[in-house]
């Protein structure tokens, strides 16, 4: 077989908070949020002598006329439908189709019929055998990867990736998480024993991204700070590396758990190294729901106080919030609004609980007969669920979620949290200073201003805060972009209804 491969990261089948589809939809910029780490990593595992080409469909069309003999498709659950569509078209054209990635690893039966070769698990340890078999035309229908030592993971092939079309680069410094949240599918295929790269590996990857112009990098870890000793060792190297950059510092974002707030030394270390933003799964103020889902790290603490502690360190927090746990009754929606509005967190990634395939939650609800036929939405559309709730109907859950969403993303409620963030956020000695909003933010502001008086008041607040706190302009730019993305997807899914707030102003206050 001709040794050539075309690796594709398909476009998302659903929209989410992390995407930046609003930029294209509003004709602001032809860029995406995160550069794709999956295809570039797989490309680095392809043997020498192969012809390799990449496609990130979020920013370029798929070349269905490619001369490559092998098509490699990867994807998350949110890309499931597109992976299957592309596989069918390329197989119709006589190509050998290989499917792998998180979605295929978690639900292999959903992809088996659509692939010539199905790869589940991680690729590093089996890549040589897989490509040798393909080259010899003696491939198997299924290859199962293990959980390799990440010292064997190569520097991704960013030289093959489109340049200048992503706002953030990516580096994965570890895989796995020791926690056991019932709804989490990550630990089902990456494991609870965290494995990590050596600091030198991480810096080599950073050097490549830096040369390619990236000044914002997402550390794609499931829990960056959970293993304290390794995190401190890496942060020391990142701080020294960043201090030595003559063409400007790099700012990092990552995912952590709330227990970072109880380690002030680690928080300060993160800030000095350049960690600007962290995502924390807060989920709910309902302790019974936290216990139910085994989110033990969030129990018996003042969640709002802990979030404020992280923010005072000069680190922006994004929160994951969920409704629909078994201990959530109809009162949860008002309770969540009050809780969310107490946080210095403008960007709240809110959704209804779903049960992803292969998780303990899925198994439990399946045994109880409480799963709908929408199993494929798990991890996808934030406003769907495959769960039959326990203390309310599914219709009540979705109606309450819609009510909540409109309240927390009303311009007035968002403004309240924005002011709280600016008041609490600590100043950092090594923060990247910005002279003001750039062309993307100005274009977004112009479009948002056309939506109404409340939106114009919110924009005036952005401008006021940018003048009074120039050290957080980078944060403010992200909040503006995130707010516009949220409004765009709410309207696309038909859940945006300002009248829900206007008819219920006492709660919004």
Strand order of the largest sheet: 2-8-11-12-13-14-15
Report the average pLDDT across residues. Answer: 93
Q: Main β-sheet, in a few words?
A: 7 strands, parallel
| CATH fold-level name of the domain at 4-146 | Rossmann fold
Rounded to an integer in angstroms, the radius of gyration calculated over CA atoms is: 23 Å
- Can you tell me the overall shape? globular
User: What class, by secondary structure content?
Assistant: alpha/beta
What do you see in this structure?
With 509 residues, the protein is an alpha/beta fold. Among the domains are: 143 residues, Rossmann fold (3-Layer(aba) Sandwich); 88 residues, no CATH class. Helices cover 40% and strands 15% of the residues. It is built from 20 helices and 15 strands. α16 packs across α18. It starts with a strand and ends with a helix. The relative contact order is 0.10.
